[in-house]
Write a structure and sequence with these properties.
CATH class of the largest domain: Alpha Beta
Strand content: 15-25%
Bound molecules: NADPH dihydro-nicotinamide-adenine-dinucleotide phosphate, the ligand O=C(O)[C@H](O)[C@H](O)[C@H](O)CO
Radius of gyration: 19 Å
Order of helices and strands: EHEHEHEHEHEHEHHEEEEEEEHH
CATH superfamily of the largest domain: Dihydrodipicolinate Reductase, domain 2
Distance between the termini: 41 Å
Length: 335
């Protein structure tokens, strides 16, 4: 039975995700509706992606009984209201990262999903790439020995991307790019709560975070660190070091296809996407998370075992702590 998707908002990532869904067998995935704040833009998107139903409001899509799962592709601050709207309408929800602007928002969404017995997942698509699955396997086998340190970086000049420098839209690097680094560190250290968090950072002129470095101490004398930036290019790699060797996820680490383990280079090419256009790097890699969502729903799961809701809450808690340490607040923090 095909999983019937509703796409919430018609922005850049929504276009990429919809393009990916339409490469999948129609017997497994169908995009049955799309909604935008403006009907004409929703209709244009529907024409581009051959979607049967277009709505001029998210509310109308939420009421569409043909929609089983909603994909939330709005900007950060609109994630919470649209997730809550779709949950209230009985939809399963896949919400783009970061699921919330802060931990309070994430906890509100998680509580609502749990109280309604509905599936909710944060679209940390990185975790579903074969290269990252291979890294998890390497770690599980003890190939690197006893872990000591993990280091991650994600930086690129985004000062020309309006949402990235827009304080009202919770811009900056931490929520947009840093979350990718942090989720690697948390994944490697088993979703444990760090014992100590420290951070230094620079503010961008609009009040968002510009470049931030974070140090996380975990139980057992191990630690992780990351740097994210919206103004400076960084290595965009991840390295995991243990007593028996080093593993590296090569750039682009947030959507990787290359893993190096103790000097051995392994490639995990994306599925072919002939004549498909994407707004973001390695967009075809969203196929993995889309397939995972369907697998979860087929099993009757209410959350992903790969990016559990408790992990989304933990990531948000840590990002809150980091923002507090460097003095970054957003309008959404007051609610
Ligand atoms: N997984 C990945 O690889 C990526 C994930 N993302 C995530 O996806 C989300 C969207 O990013 P992106 O597609 O670049 O965003 P866009 O700038 O394309 O905006 C997405 C949608 O947000 C709505 N929107 C835009 N501005 C406002 C505003 N000021 N107030 C209210 N709503 C607004 C619009 O919805 P409408 O269409 O209804 O008008 C718009 O289409 C982000 O949270 C980001 O973190 C982004 C890039 C890559
Ligand atoms: O999730 C992402 O990949 C980021 O939002 C984008 O890559 C970043 O905003 C640059 O476009």
């Amino acid at each position: 039975m095909a999983l019937r998707w509703g796409i919430v908002s018609v922005g850049l990532i929504s276009s990429d995700f919809t393009t990916v869904l339409r490469t999948l067998p129609r017997s497994e995935h169908q995009v049955v509706a799309v909604a935008a704040r403006d009907l004409s833009r929703a209709e244009e998107f529907a024409r581009k992606h051959d979607i049967p139903k277009a709505y001029g409001s998210y509310e109308e899509l939420a009421k569409d009984l043909n929609v089983e799962v909603a994909y939330i592709g709005t900007q950060h601050p609109q994630h919470k209201p649209t997730v809550l709207l779709c949950l209230a309408a009985g939809k399963a929800v896949l919400c783009e990262k970061p699921m919330g602007v802060n931990a309070a928002e994430v906890r509100e969404m998680v509580a609502e999903a749990r109280s309604r017995g509905l599936f909710l997942m944060e679209a940390i698509w990185t975790r579903f790439f074969p290269a990252v699955e291979a890294l998890r396997s390497v770690l599980a086998q003890g190939t690197l020995g006893d872990l000591r340190v993990i280091r991650a970086e994600f930086g690129k000049n985004l000062t020309n991307v309006p949402r990235s420098i827009d304080w009202a839209q919770a811009g900056g690097g931490l929520l947009d790019l840093g979350i990718y680094c942090l989720q690697f560190i948390s994944m490697v250290f088993g979703g444990q709560k760090p014992e100590k968090i420290s951070a230094v950072g620079r503010h961008y002129e609009t009040g968002v975070d510009d470049t931030v470095s974070v140090l996380l101490q975990y139980p057992g004398g191990v630690h992780g660190s990351f740097t994210c930036s919206i103004t400076a290019p960084l290595s965009n790699m991840v390295s995991v070091s243990g007593t028996k060797g080093l593993a590296q996820i090569l750039s682009p680490c947030w959507c990787p296809t290359e893993l190096v383990v103790k000097g051995e280079h392994k490639e995990f090419p994306l599925p072919p996407a002939p004549d498909k256009e994407f707004n973001f790097t390695n967009g075809m890699g969203m196929i993995y998370e889309a397939k995972h969502v369907r697998e979860c729903l087929q099993k009757g799961l209410k959350e992903s075992p790969v990016i559990p809701l408790a992990e989304s809450e933990l990531l948000a808690d840590i990002l809150d702590e980091v923002r507090k340490a460097i003095g970054i607040t957003f309008p959404q923090d007051k609610h």
